[in-house]
């Protein structure tokens, strides 16, 4: 990826300023003297640096805090509207979703495009257009946009901003970041459509108190985004998180990967639809039939979730069964990684109240007791916005990244 926009780049990347900006961002409101104590700089040096940050608009004075004796110190806080970022979610259903967020990942404005195809030139054009539309709609100057994050399905080289292979988009070796940077002259960061929301949930959402979190997305596929110690775990080739291809039953249904009985074949949307249609064929009476106009081909996950939310007995049974299989898969993850939080995302999170009960039952009864008692299994905090907020979070984490140096050598 390019350096963050020139003018901002040198400024933000300065080590002490980056440290101070991070302290203010994570612990505001905070006084200059508290910052000085934390980073062992003189109060004068801290004032000098905070003055620069105030001048650039990143932080601001909040008014006096409390003090036992003497003059009350002026407190500093992050100005979340100092700059903005764009988050783009390339969904698996020919849709580009995009949002502008502030520096705390709050959505300012969002838009959606439907694509006629997923040819990379169509997708790049759509992204360029949607960024301009967002900037126009928000009334912001494009110079205020510090970067664009993109969450995309597929195998990626996130360092090079390249989609190596994506079955959903039918892409091979597409230099996505470079193509968009050429058009917009704004730095671009990409990651997968499961890693990006995982990061957002850990930084700002359902797991913001946790350092280790797993985000599970149930949709056309079944994937996991793994956050360890606040960082995305990619694995050596970037393929980490292919949770859906955990084999549960070697004689089970054939999976897209060529194996049999992968968890995905029992939990992802195709399986939910299959179990539903089979049940109805066997004579189950359900609201689903009515919602699908008695046509098997019209049964969608959306309809099944809608019926379940209306307490349709069979729809609830299908969701609970899905939860049972998902729980079996999660037992291995809980035993393997001892996560603090598991967040369930994707469209299925709208029926989380029904789904999560059997999931938790299976995990508590089958996983080892210490990690099973520890883990919180919850629904996505961001729901349908998890993808765009996740993509924006990729950029925010980069902006606020502290340069990698040995801190003891510079103090
Ligand atoms: Zn598989």
Automatic annotation (TrEMBL):
* Gene3D superfamilies noted in UniProt: 3.30.420.40, Winged helix-like DNA-binding domain superfamily/Winged helix DNA-binding domain (1.10.10.10)
Q: Name one Pfam family in it.
A: MarR
Q: Where are the transmembrane segments?
A: none
Q: Which residues form the HTH marR-type domain?
A: 10-108
Q: Which InterPro entries match?
A: ATPase_NBD (IPR043129), HTH_MarR-typ (IPR000835), ROK (IPR000600), ROK_cs (IPR049874), WH-like_DNA-bd_sf (IPR036388), WH_DNA-bd_sf (IPR036390)
Molecular function (GO) terms for this protein are:
DNA-binding transcription factor activity
Q: Which PROSITE patterns match?
A: ROK
Family membership? Belongs to the ROK (NagC/XylR) family.
What name is this protein filed under? ROK family transcriptional regulator
